[in-house]
Amino acid sequence: MSESPKEKVVAARNLSKIFPHGGEDVVALDKIDIDIYKGEFVALMGPSGSGKSTLLHIVAGIDRPTSGELEVLGDPIADLSESQLSTWRNHHVGFVFQSFNLIPVLTAQENVEMPLLLTSLNKKERREHVETVLRIVGLTDRMTHYPRQLSGGQEQRVAIARALVGDPDLILADEPTGDLDAHSAEEIMTVLQKLNEDHGKTVIMVTHDPRTAHYSSITRHLDKGKMLPVGEPGSQE
Q: Under DSSP, is residue 233 helix (H, G, I), strand (E, B) or coil?
């Protein structure tokens, strides 16, 4: 019996992003081609200014490309209106930022629950969802703690739980360990690896740290807005 084809989650062709700056055009992405499949854990690497975060933000629907073709989960997201894009993100994307972006006056449980307030779930259902994702990231004993009562690693795990609570198809992480010490970084990467391997989540992560990229199954490198071809030294590990 032949193996069924893998489901393509991201398909980009000739994807470019140009920012006007001081009367000149800055090319952040230069005709990028990339395919990412369901269940992969992809690390995007490259020096500062290589375009890796720009690419992640475009895949997330946070930013739009200047030109090229892009489908994410089969949807041509660059063609969606702002309201359609917002709905699409809420249904499909969990985004983890370098800075935790937690609300200081809310507990871990309340921070994680925030995205669910926009859904039709009732209070009991929301609590069940929150408890499930906090259990996945190992923080059931910190539910009632405020951000100031948590370590940096614990705060980032709350942020991951918040990204996960809507059961997204894609988890996108932009330098998720950038503000953490080595031990906390290892904790976060173990969580992301678990989400990928045990829960089947597709993860796309931007990092400049080879130790962090080591947790991914595929590494792609960008340089000066270009995606290095697979097989070229430094292009895929």
A: coil
